[in-house]
Structure of Xanthine dehydrogenase YagT iron-sulfur-binding subunit:
Amino acid sequence: MDTQITLRVDGAAHPLTVDTRTTLLDALRERLRNTSPKKGCDHGQCGACTVLLDGRRVNSCLVLAVTVGDAEVTTSDGLAEGDRPHALHRSFVEHDAFQCGYCTPGQVCSAAGVLAEARAGWPSAVTDDLHAADAELTDEEIRERMSGNLCRCAAYANIVPAVAAVAEAEGVRR
């Protein structure tokens, strides 16, 4: 069954008619031609399709487009300010935190979500003080929080310092 929806992606509204079974990932890539989120496993296990939904990271291959409603979808492209790359984009380049680049948009969106979660004080599975006002974003915390994003090229050793550099620059407790 087809239904009318409007997806708000990277600050722009896009009216679409979609099958109710269409995933957000497929709507982004196939209908809107947004190639930032990638189709990796299509089962929510690799993180290549990670986008932000009202600022919270989600695997877009697991979200039905019809359920998004008025939420703002932000892709890695949408994190940039016009032609100026986001601090995470710049840090990934500066720290050589990518190789083939396939997973990079999902990694960057996930990293943006990690920084927001840490600023909000949300604990992870490795957080020592669950009652702290804000989370301390140690390397162990970054690794744990980014663990849903896989990189087949194994650029992990550079991803953690790239995220850490932005966390420090933004004043997130380290």
Observations:
- Residues 87-169 form a domain with the DNA polymerase; domain 1 fold (CATH 1.10.150.120).
